[in-house]
Amino acid sequence: MSSIQKETKKITTNTLQRMKAHGEKISMLTAYDFSFAKIIDNAGIDVLLVGDSASNVMAGHETTLPITLEQMIYHASSVIRGISRCLVVVDLPFGSYQSNSEIALASAIRIMKETGAHAIKLEGGEEVLESVKRIISAGIPVMGHLGLTPQSIYKFGTYNVRAKEEEEANKLRNDAKLLEEVGCFGIVLEKIPAQLAREVTENVSIPTIGIGAGKYCDGQVLVMHDMLGINTEFKPRFLRQYLNLYEEITGAVQQYVNDVKTNSFPSDSESY
Ligand code: KIV
Would the CB of 51 count as within 6 Å of ligand 1? Predict the structure, then answer.
């Protein structure tokens, strides 16, 4: 473990700020349930994101749009019961904050009150700024999310790299500064050119966490099912797959089926 990680019993938003100041990279993964949250927290992750990607990898939807606030609360409260050290950030799902700042604050309060999570994340810049301000005024830490924002997939039309053109890159630069100014504690930068992510990272005082945004961000995040190879259908260039759990689990289940069919499970020592 690196130095700030070692000396920290509980990761807070201040810890992340110190990591940025000391050039210590921040590690973040998604989790959606008690058991995986426990493993990942014990393994030394800095931040767990209860992402609305649960809509894809847990519920099998094509997009993140269908997941509800109630479902996010269920996932987040399960994750919280599994962790003792990392910071837990929860996505506000589509439809729970876009209408107005009052609804956004009410959704954020429900997440904090009913799950015990430490912070929320929402997608967008200038267009959600009033909501971000209001949530932060209530004492709730907010993480921004710029670049490819999956809740807007039907506006974008594709999951391709964002902000390659100057106009969109300028909006992103401006949005990052606005999110910093209103008090966000960090910003996820998803699928944007590495040099743009580098520029944003150097120009804001809060940590940037990249996914498909290159190595200059202050930290990195991946979806747990993708990096563990549980979900094998999604193989973007930015993904490093650390395990092939799909194959491992398939092998184990095949072995179990065979053992049951051949009556070699249970053995006498596995019986009472
Ligand atoms: O929902 C999610 O998993 C996310 C990450 C991709 C950053 O927002």
Answer: yes
